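Field reference: sequence -> structure
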Amino acid sequence: MGTGRDWRRAGVIMGIVAALLVVPAALTALVPTRETPVSHGATIRLTAPGSAPDTIEFAGVDGWRQRPTGDRTTAVLDGPNGRILLVSVVNGVTDFDSAAQWRRKVLGAQAFPVREDGGKVANTYGFTGPTCRGETRAGVCAILGNHNLAVSMLLSGTDIDADLQPIVYTLRVTS
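Structure field:
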């Protein structure tokens, strides 16, 4: 006797549940990602909790757009020609070779698999380490160490001639 009403109630409840699932997803798709333009000469500062020194900064990204990450140890920037720069810092490094190997695995989880390419890079601020390349996508990377810090940098995008050196040369410890 009440089965017609039960189906109607079930249909209304299913409609409400569907609206609760679809409406937020649709609104999220419509809202653009909040990005902050990097002004001329500005530096990006990252901090990894732990022993001093714990803070690094880098430049060379004038006009790029920084994405919010909610993580003081990581910066993600969108650059020209579809380039994306991912920079992360970790603290407490006592064995840099092991840390570099681990950071390459982390880059594989954060972006795409990378492999060491036999190159080395260093700057005048004491950072040095191996370079790497994307295995499945175009991209260059470097894992750099200084004191107790390890910094991973990955530059990817459609431009296969992407060069990390201008950014690496500005990398320094600030604390």
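Note: The mean pLDDT is 88.
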